[in-house]
Specification:
- The protein has 14 helices and 14 strands.
- It has 382 residues and is α/β, with parallel strands linked by helices.
- Strands 4-3-2-5-1-6-7-8 form an eight-stranded mixed β-sheet, sandwiched between helices.
- Strand 11 (290-294), helix 11 (302-310) and strand 12 form a beta-alpha-beta unit.
- 49% of the residues are buried.
Length: 382
């Protein structure tokens, strides 16, 4: 992997390191237009919808997505396709001499690689997904022409605050004076975004109605994510036809977003109660009857997520994920419920037992959980 020597789970919030690195690299990010996308859920989907819409207008687009599901190259898209791993490794080798004395984190490296990759490919637009929050996220060093904020819910509370309003305040810091800030936030989150937009002089656009086009990705929030992307395209000055919009939204794809495989398995990267609620709504509406496989990180609301999944599944298999941030035996023990919630020693074993029931299976809880199972399905063809 391109960044295999950089720890993924070491976070050091702040902008100075990335600013210093980009300055040494002669600011590759200044050669194309930027869109910055923050939010709790739906960021990746919104990025890809916007990418597809802009591509129908004849412009070249690069997109960052984080985290990845199974392959590191998912984080870097050029023209709607994952970047080549060898090309990314070569690019890192070229960059490293200029920044080797800067202690860049994993995500900071991703932002810098993307900035250079998009310049290298002479792209017109770079769509950057914020990794964590907004104010101190590495991507916030960029100078976005338009900033987007998707749905806001409780997540990363140890870093962003314990209320939706506090979290919204962190994410709203991607707004720029005199430039559009477009959001699907609602309630208390929207009030906070409105206050910040007014304070900095950003031009606020609120998207509160879903678009009327069919989206390829499933779930009740997708039509609103698509509407956010479409409004952004309009604000950027593009006027796609109905046929172009329909094509863009029906061909956009990201793995692990309520993804159905083989008629029996549903994969979804829901990793907080808000996203889990969207998944359960979809399962209920589609008549799902089956079992669940759940793997969650220890800093998430794992009790609520287990209870939610248990409400729709005949049995839930819980297991640790392949991350040092995984929940452990003590956290999982708090979620056990007789025969309804059972603990296994690995996600792969939990999935095998779930399949053996002959019922449908939903796999969820984190990107790590979905990534492990999706990779095994793709590799085995099962």
């Amino acid at each position: 992997m391109v960044l295999k020597d950089i720890p993924q789970n070491v976070w050091s919030l702040g902008l100075d390191r990335v600013r210093q690195a980009l300055d040494r690299l002669d600011h590759p990010e200044r050669f194309y237009r930027h869109v910055l996308v923050a939010g709790t859920n739906g960021k990746g989907s919104t990025c890809v919808y916007l990418e597809r819409i802009l591509m129908t207008q004849g412009v070249s687009v690069g997109t960052t997505i984080s985290p990845h599901v199974a392959d590191f190259t998912e984080r870097f898209r050029v023209g709607g396709r994952n970047a080549d791993s060898d090309a990314l490794a070569k690019l890192r080798r070229e960059i490293e001499p200029a920044v080797k004395d800067i202690p860049l984190t994993y995500f900071e490296w991703c932002v810098i690689l993307a900035a250079c990759l998009f310049r290298q490919n002479s792209l017109d637009f770079g769509i950057f997904e914020v990794g964590l929050g907004g104010r101190y996220d590495a991507a916030n060093v960029l100078d976005p022409e338009v900033s987007l904020i998707t749905d806001i819910a409780l997540d990363h509370t140890q870093y962003l605050g314990s209320t939706v309003s506090e979290i919204a305040g962190e994410k709203a810091r991607i707004a720029r004076r005199g430039r559009p800030l477009i959001t699907t936030a609602a309630g208390a989150a929207l009030e906070t975004v409105q206050e910040h937009a007014s304070a900095v002089g950003a031009v606020l656009h609120v998207v509160d109605k879903p678009c009327g086009y069919r989206t390829s990705m499933k779930g009740s929030r997708q039509a609103l994510n698509a509407a956010l992307a479409l409004r952004t395209a309009h604000v950027l000055g593009f006027r796609p036809s109905g046929a172009q919009i329909s094509y863009a939204l029906s061909t956009a794809f990201l793995p692990g977003r309520i993804e159905e495989i083989g008629g029996r398995v549903v994969l979804d990267v829901a990793h907080n109660p808000s996203a889990m609620g969207v998944l359960l709504e979809y399962l209920e509406n589609s008549g799902f009857h089956g079992v669940g496989v759940l793997g969650v990180l220890a800093d998430k609301d794992y009790i609520s997520m287990t209870d939610m999944l248990k409400s729709i599944c005949t049995r839930v298999y819980i297991a640790p994920v392949q991350s040092e941030r995984s929940w452990g035996p003590s956290e999982m023990e708090r979620c056990l419920d007789g025969g309804r919630v059972v603990q296994r020693d690995s996600i792969s074993r939990a999935f095998d037992e779930a399949l053996a029931t002959g019922e449908k299976v939903v796999v969820t809880g984190s990107f790590y959980t979905v990534g492990e199972i999706r990779e095994s399905i793709v590799c085995t063809g099962s």
